[in-house]
Structures are given as structure tokens and as C-alpha cells.
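Intended use. Records like the one below are meant for learning the mapping from a protein sequence to its folded structure. Do not use them to infer anything beyond what is encoded.
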Amino acid sequence: MQVPDVEFSDPASVAEAFYVAWLSYDAAVDTLDSRRARVQPYTTPALLEQGAFGNRLPAAEWQRAQNADEVVQVVAPHAFVEPYAPSPTPTRAHYMVVGTLRTTTQEGTHEEPAPPYPLVLESVAGRWLVVRISYH
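Structure written out for the chain above:
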């Protein structure tokens, strides 16, 4: 998976890298542990312990993805201040992240909009990290 370079002093950069690391996968080689390890640099230990990062498709969908050698890569991520969230502070910010899912299988490649996710980030010891995913 190609995760963009990140600047931990920029919450938008961290939000984009997290989003790519979280939603991208290679069904042929990814494991729950590898997916969790991919998001680890961009989030807090407390959020990692919630277990949402190893989640993958339901079993039947994961089997289909493995059989098709499916690779899903988020491309062109874009984070922006969430318009209906509280105003950013020097230590807390709310961002919405969008992008494009590029799915490659044995049959070819197609692109579609990736689902938008609102993320909450906090500055921890001078590094911005994702502390919450606000599911719709």
C-alpha cells in the first residue's frame, strides 16, 4: 500500500495518511495485524485498542476479494476542516477526509469515490494523531 508522506505537525497531512492506510488493502497478503500496523503511526494507542483497524470485509466478501487478488488503494486523499464541527484549537481539530478508491482485480481496474470520514485529531507531544473516527 502506498501511504502518502506525512508531516506530523500538520493535522490535514496526518488525516490523509491515516485515511489511506485505513481504507487501502491487498486481499492477497494483508492480515488483521498488517492492517493494524499500517495505521499505527497515525493514531493513539487508545484508539488502536478499540480494534477498528484490523476490521476487514465480511468473511464472504473477503474470500471473494482474495479470489480476485483484489487490491484497493485510496488515491487523491483530501482532508479539510469539517464544516459543522467545533472550530480547531491548537490541540484539537476535526477533519473530513475524502478520496478515490482504485480497485484492481484480475479483471482490471476501476475507480469510485471513497466514503467520506470525519476524523478527530489531537496534538500529542507535538505530533497530530487521530483520536476518533466519527462514523455516520
